[in-house]
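Example record used in the benchmark description.
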Amino acid sequence: MLFSSSFLIALGSTFLLSASQLEAFGLQSNVLSTQSRTNSLTFLEATASSKEDIVERLGGNCQKLVSGSMLGLGLACSIVSPAMAVSGGGLDYAGTDISGQDFSNNSKTYKGKDFTQVLAKATNFANSNLQGCRFYKAYLINADFTNADIRGTALEDTNMEGANLNGAIASGAYFGQSLIDVASAENADFTDATIPMKTLSLFCARDDVKGTNPVTGEDTRDSLMCP
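Model output (C-alpha cells):
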C-alpha cells in the first residue's frame, strides 16, 4: 500500500527514525535520506500493509521509538491517528488519498489549492471552483470535472484516464499527454490552454471534442484551434 509523502515525512520528522528502527517497526523504505538528518528525516516513499497497521504497531512501539523524548510522544501518536484529516498535514490536499470523495460543492471554492500527487480515483469535482489549483502528478482516473472551473489549473503529468471534462472551463489550464485519455470533453472550453502539440492533434481527432460551453459560449473545437 502506498502512503502519502506528507504522512511519512510527518512520521519520520517526529520520531527521527533510523533505518534499523524502520525495519523493527515493520516498514521498508525505498528511498531514505541520511545526509539531511539535521532538520528532519525525509521519507520519499514507503510501503506497509495498511495505515491501520502502522497505528497498531505504533501503539506498542511509541515508547521504544521516542525514549528520551517524551515531548514528542503525544504529537507523534496523534499524527498517525486513523481519523486523520483529509489534508493529511501536508500542503492543502497534496499527497493525500481523496478517492471517491465529494468535492462537488459549487458554493465552496477550492481556488488555488494544492492537489499535487493526490490520489483522486473517481473523486467528484463537478461544478467546483478549482481555478489555479495544482494537480501535478495527480492520479485522476475516473474523476468527474463536469462543469468545473479549472481555469489556469496545472494538470501536467497526471493520469486522467476516464476523467470527465464535459462542460469544464479549462481556459489557460496546463495539460499533459494524459488529456487524450479522458472519457469525454464535450462542451468544454480550452481557450489558451497549454497542451502538447502531439496530444492536441490526437485530441482534436476525437468525435466527442465538440459542442459549446454553456457558461462562456465558446465552441470547444474553436477553443482548441482544431482544424
